[in-house]
Amino acid sequence: MIEFRAVTKRFGDGTVAVDNFDIVIPSRKITVFVGSSGSGKTTLLRMINRMVDPTGGDIEIDGESIMQKEPVSLRRSIGYVMQNSGLLPHFKVIDNVTTVPMLNGVAKKQARAQALELLDTVGLSRSLADRYPSQLSGGQQQRVGVARGLAANPNILLMDEPFGAVDPIVRAELQQETIRLQHELDKTIVFVTHDIDEAFLLGDQVVILEKGAKIAQVGSPNEIMANPASEFVASFIGTDRGKRALSLKKTESGTIVIDSEGRGAGVLVGGSEQ
Ligand SMILES: Nc1ncnc2c1ncn2[C@@H]1O[C@H](COP(=O)(O)OP(=O)(O)OP(=O)(O)O)[C@@H](O)[C@H]1O
Q1: Tens digit of pLDDT for each residue in 186-198?
Q2: Angle CA(251)–CA(252)–CA(253) in degrees, nearest 5?
């Protein structure tokens, strides 16, 4: 469990990126921070592994304050996957994946064997191990980024807009892979996105943020969709329009579900129409 308690981050120029933020992030689930640009998502994520230190409040991992931990070893014990994969361009795939375990003292041979297994885990062929990042597609690079994030076998995986730069089809694949990996590996994943559809697809817990990381609503996707806490949330998640604003329409051949534009979206199965 990760707990933020009254966490504030004021940068040197006076910008308050995070203002008095509280949340409990449960273990072995996916928590998604979602909000528009500048709402403080990345700052929140980076405070968990002390890439950024809070200026107020405290963050605990399993009851221990991270401020008591040595930043470099903390960072190496938590996986981090960023947009554009963040791979080292002059390192082969295999060396990108083995870097952190070897810094942690794992012998090279063992680190390489584990890295090849991780390529299997993230759905990449082992034949790509000796390529350089520039010789991979964007989606493959992101998979290597995930393998690298998992390399030190962390309990916690931080993912910062990891699929923002890939095309929609590959993105959908990578989203499904993330769900599969979480089920298989049982990690605590904290995921940042500005895409509410991605947040609802991946999140067990979704945290909708406004400027200053003010929580507009926190809950499961179903809770938020069924009961948006404010007009801001309703508008952000789109329950007032498009494919999430569904209604029933009786037609001569039966009742169908339509979206806000009147397009057929499906039928109700197994439930009451009332
Ligand atoms: N090093 C810094 N110095 C000063 N201000 C910063 C710094 N890093 C971030 N900020 C500011 O803090 C606020 C939150 O930034 P942050 O990157 O956390 O937002 P975000 O929600 O992740 O945005 P995006 O989706 O665009 O990445 C913004 O106003 C940003 O300009």
Answers
A1: 999 999 999 999 9
A2: 90
Determine the 3-state secondary structure of 150 from DSSP: helix
ipTM score of complex? 0.95
Q: Is the dihedral of CA 233, 238, 240, 244 positive or negative?
A: negative
d(CA 32, CA 87): 23
Helix (H) or strand (E) holding 159: strand 156-160
From the CA of 154, how far away is ligand 1's center (Å)? 26
The class of domain 2-244 in CATH terms is alpha beta
* Amino acid at the residue 55: T
Of 183, 102, 97, 98, which Cα lies nearest the Cα of 141?
97
Which residue's alpha carbon is at the smallest distance from atom 24 of ligand 1? 37
Q: How far apart are CA 98 and CA 108, in angstroms?
A: 8
Tokens of 210: 């406004």
Dump pLDDT digits (tens) for 74-108. Answer: 998 899 998 887 899 999 999 999 998 999 899 99
74 by DSSP, 3-state: which?
A: helix
Domain with CATH 3.40.50.300 in the chain: 2-244
Which residues pair with residue 99 across a beta bridge? none
CA of 42 to the centre of ligand 1 (A): 7
Q: How far is the CA of 41 from the centre of ligand 1 (A)?
A: 8
Q: Residue 78 and residue 154: Cα distance in Å, rounded?
A: 5
Its pTM stands at 0.91
Axis crossing angle, helix 108-121 with helix 168-185, rounded to the nearest 10: 120
